[in-house]
Amino acid sequence: MTVPVTAVMLVLVLGAAVALSQPLVLLCAIPLIGNAWWQRDGALLMLQPAVIEEGQLLPSQVMARIPAEAELAGPSPLDRVDVVKAAYGRLLGDIVYRIENSALFDAAQPATSRFQVALASWDPGSVHADHLAQEVEVSFAAARSEAERLGMAHLPLTARGPAQRAVKAVRVALSDAPEAERTSAIARADETLRALALYYLPTVDRQTPSLIGARRAIEPAP
What digits encode the pLDDT tens for the residues 121-139? Predict the structure, then answer.
């Protein structure tokens, strides 16, 4: 029964009570009034936010109340670049990785050059900081992917065999082998890498646990 029909019936009942001079007929109007009021409240509930419990709304109602332009806070451009720098720093400190994926540290490699330019151009105070941070992230991912794809193939053909021997020696030097064996392995790795004389390969420091020599700076020079 719709609200308009209920209203018509209510008018008819009231009219009959007046015409017949029978007040008791008005008792028939009570259910009609209640039904009309219930349907009115039902219609309003369809239009107004319904409260499940005091102070609690349906998830769909909560989402509807969030402004369309609202955005969840995420990492700042500075945080994102710091993540890249930390990852790059870990790779710089991994002597095996630096030999096996040397293209990441060779500025003559286009993908690596792009990353180094992006890192040098990074300015947290720039109005374009978000774009600059994105370029650092994208260029690093591309440079690393390319370096790992090339692997030892990035090295000159004559350097690949010695580089592989240097990696084997380094692995022994970093292992739990007897001290004399590790010392000999360090010496072999050092001599091999010095003989290759490739600027993007690491130098060996026999006194440091990582065996990495003069560590390359991540921050651009002033």
Answer: 999 999 999 999 999 999 9
Are the C-beta atoms of 139 and 114 separated by less than 8 Å? Answer: yes
Residues in the chain, total: 222
Strand, coil or helix: what is 185?
helix
Predicted confidence (pLDDT) at residue 159 exceeds the cutoff of 70 = yes
CA distance 149 to 103: 10
Overall pTM > 0.70: no
Beta carbons of 68 and 49 less than 8 angstroms apart: no
Place of tokens 């006194």: 207
Q: How far is CA 39 from CA 1, 34, 45, 47, 49, in A?
A: 9, 9, 10, 13, 17
Among candidates 202, 110, 196, 188, which has minimal Cα distance to 155? Answer: 196
Q: Which residues pair with 204 in a beta bridge?
A: 212
Those residues whose C-beta lies under 8 Å from the C-beta of residue 97, and which sit 6 or more positions away, are 91
H or E stretch covering 126: none
- Contact at 8 Å (CB) between 155 and 102? yes
pLDDT at 62: 54
Kindly state the helix (H) or strand (E) to which residue 220 belongs, with its residue range: none
Sign of CA pseudo-dihedral 174, 177, 180, 181: negative
205: left (phi over 0), alpha (psi -120 to 50) or beta: beta
CA 131 to chain centre: 15
